[in-house]
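Chains adopt folds. We examine one example:
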Amino acid sequence: MLRVKKVSKFLKNTSKFAFMAVYSYFWCLIMGRIIAIDYGKKRVGIAVTDTLQLIANGLTTVASHEVIAFLERYIQTEPVDKIIIGLPKQMNNELSESMKYITPFVHTLKKRITHIPIEYVDERFTSVLAHRTMLEAGLKKKDRKNKALVDTISATIILQTYLESIKTNTL
């Protein structure tokens, strides 16, 4: 009971700003990151959020046959709340040919990482947006041809799309 009184007294004597700073710090310790995956036949782009799940950042690109082991290692070191997979759709809203690679991957992922929910997010135009982003950022032509960088940026765009959709409840 003495601890409760001390905490209560502390909160009464603390500004709202300081309280929010402390609250945010402890909330960060509780929340996990969200991972986004742009799965390809050869390479997989991976992006993650910060611990507040506000900002999407490109993490890396790994070979497709190594991605599950990479994710298992990453999850051992960082708390993860959700995995987002880019869902390749055509303009007519039908699934694209690359689903024949993504479906077995997601099936295996669900078997190996059972405690983290997996969701799909439409990934149409992410490669185009990734190339446009690199062009606008002033990357040299040689860097813009780096397919691994395109995959990482595409995963970041997928994750940013997801974050924006949960803010506006449009997913």
